[in-house]
Amino acid sequence: MFTDRRGGVSTGPFASLNLATHVGDDGDAVAENRRRAEARTGRVVALWPRHVHGTDVLTVTRALPAGREVDGCVTADPALAVVALGADCAPVALGDDAAWAAIHVGWRGLRDGIVAAGVAAVRAVGRGAVRAAIGPCICGRCYEFGPADLDAVVAAVGPVVASRTTTGAHALDLPAGIRSELRRAGVESVQDLGVCTSESVAHYSFRREGRTGRQVVLVAGPTP
User: 29, 84, 113, 153: which is deepest, by most CB within 10 A?
Assistant: First the structure.
């Protein structure tokens, strides 16, 4: 389940379903927003993480206190859901026949291998072919990027990530890079929602707004 900014109780720049605690929103409002999002899954969220743009994917077997610094979670417990946040970075869902994961993919994680780490984590605890869904994130038309940093991502991922903005500036195509890394990891079934957070007023975008909230992907398995 991919959320957008609608359906919560936050106000101001965080209106209304902000699900992040680190952006300056009222803590009680975020807690209620998380309760609403969790209720829609019918599961317990295993961990509300704090993302650090790394490549660690945590295997979870029980609910953990919020705030652990990790960029992906995987579980095979049908009572649990896993979550990843984003507001231009991509929340990505992964799953096979027995396990499911949520990973947070920004340009550093893409460069350093978070996609492959997420796929490997699912395979380590699951079985069958891995499938993926790429959630709302900033697109290559909007993600202006410094040439030096872009060269580093191209060196790691390939030229598919190099793009240009609508004004002709150097840009990074994050969803194209994620799709490429998924193919490299052997994932053949990939759904891309094709929603650019910078272009969609229904979604939070750090690049567009600066002070803003975060949407998420919530991933759960079959009903226990």
Answer: 84
